[in-house]
Amino acid sequence: xxxxxxxxxxxxxxxxxxxxxxxxxxxxxxxxxxxxxxxxxxxxxxxxxxxxxxxxxxxxxxxxxxxxxxxxxxxxxxxxxxxxxxxxxxxxxxxxxxxxxxxxxxxxxxxxxxxxxxxxxxxxxxxxxxxxxxxxxxxxxxxxxxxxxxxxxxxxxxxxxxxxxxxxxxxxxxxxxxxxxxxxxxxxxxxxxxxxxxxxxxxxxxxxxxxxxxxxxxxxxxxxxxxxxxxxxxxxxxxxxxxxxxxxxxxxxxxxxxxxxxxxxxx
Length: 267
Fold this sequence. Notes:
Blueprint: E1 3-7, E2 13-19, E3 40-44, E4 51-53, E5 70-74, E6 81-83, E7 101-105, E8 128-132, H1 145-149, E9 154-155, E10 161-165, E11 178-179, E12 185-189, E13 209-212, H2 214-218, E14 235-238, H3 252-256, H4 259-266
Parallel strand pairs: 2-3, 3-5, 4-6, 5-7, 7-8, 8-10, 9-11, 10-12, 12-13, 13-14
Antiparallel strand pairs: 1-2
């Protein structure tokens, strides 16, 4: 495996960079630490990676990825999950407490990013969410079924920037209702299945700017001013390009343009 770990000792890994590996299928959990002190991670150009992190066996009340603040994944053509936590329901409230920056690009089979259990806050430190060219992604942060049944509004108190590009299967970011009272910028292209934006603080003095297609904006669903979820609370800026036809699942841009070049073009 081509990669490197930045650590003081085996039990306190602080950084991980995994790249250009033809053999790795997932990153195993080290014994004992469960990545407790990991602060940043970058995983890219690993064509056979199916799940970025292996599913941990977590005891009730045990925390994991507590100090992770930055995560970047790029060009993982077989990855279905970043954190495959379908069977994990007991991660504590402190897990992912400091995650502030999340970027994913060119992961065409990705189905979801991080399921939120009944014991977890909704990423209280997340400020930036960037996802580009992940055609199978249906929901970014799916809720535990018990939370989904309650139809709760999940709050992301520090979320400021959302950038979603060519996510043809995306239905939701997190549950049926989410709130981002400090949202500043939203950029959306090619996400025709996404029908809702987050609720806001209700203030009209500093409205978040939304750069999107007019067709998409016109079809969004709203709960009304009383729920702080109304188009008047946003400032839309429509692209001069309009939807003419659905793009194919795999496009020329996805595979033949360097992701960093693509990112500069669409930012």
